[in-house]
Amino acid sequence: MGKKSKHEKSGIDLPRPDGAEPGAPMKNKEYRRLLRPLHCELVALQEWVKASDARICIVFEGRDTAGKGGVIKAITERVSPRVFRVVALPAPTDREKSQMYVQRYLPHLPSGGEVVIFDRSWYNRAGVERVMGFCTEEQAQQFLQLVPTVERAIVDSGVILLKYWLEVSEDQQTLRLQSRIDDPRKVWKLSDLDLKSYTHWYDYSRARDEMFHFTDTGWAPWYVAVNDDKKRGRLNVISHLLSQIPYEPLERPDITLPDRRGPHGYTPPRQPLHWIPTPY
Fold first, then answer.
1. What's the confidence (pLDDT) of residue 13?
2. pTM here?
3. Could you state, in order of their start, the residue ranges of all structural domains in the chain?
4. Which range is least confidently modeled, 2-11, 236-245, 266-275?
5. Hey, which family's this protein in (predicted)?
6. CA dist 253 → 46, 80, 179, 260 (Å)
7. Do the bridges between strand 222-226 and strand 160-167 make them parallel or antiparallel, or are there none, so unpaired?
8. How far is it, in rounded angstroms, from Cα 108 to Cα 33?
9. Which is the most buried residue in 21, 201, 237, 278, by most CB within 10 A?
10. From the CB of residue 86, how many other CB atoms can be counted at a distance below 10 Å?
């Protein structure tokens, strides 16, 4: 076979769907204009979830720097954290390591009237743990065999389970990691594990492909989103998410602000207050 072109080498190693070739990066003004009606629909979804006691679980996985945090922030920007709850678990404790693998995730599944978003999930075992040697190959294979059954039980209990995989190209991953190195606002996002993982691009590809093979099921399919352009990716994910949930917007009552009551003798305090400086 001939040598790969630079474009082939640095592109996404999954076959793109029709019409998914990257266009020009979306401008922020256009992004905010398109995001506003989606935010309105997310609020409508929220009110339906509260009224219907629905339970929704959304899993976000993907390569390092794939933009999971940005997508989750876009989803939760205009909704209540009491309804939309984000779960991002730290590394397991020694006690949790001795438990059944998925045990520490189960208490975080949604109750009635909740949307739970996992910023990484039990699929850590199929990805980073497997590639970086934090679990044995036997443990990884056991997980891949068992997780469809666990997810079937979750879905059969009435939970709407959505699983998203965010994909980026090699070039985009390099640019985003370099930005974390160069930008002091982003340095907290960079870990030693990110740097180690960077050298394992194709190991992660193989792990992802096998994960899809075992866990892309009829009751809990994987939805793949190209996220080289973060703004387009966020809009696409939110639009798709809304299309997968059978919510019905509730009728909004007409609301008129009541008149405020008068001061009834109130006077401002004489105590000097500690006002902050106003340099802006």
1. 82
2. 0.89
3. 26-167+195-243
4. 2-11
5. Belongs to the polyphosphate kinase 2 (PPK2) family. Class I subfamily.
6. 16, 20, 47, 21
7. parallel
8. 34
9. 237
10. 17
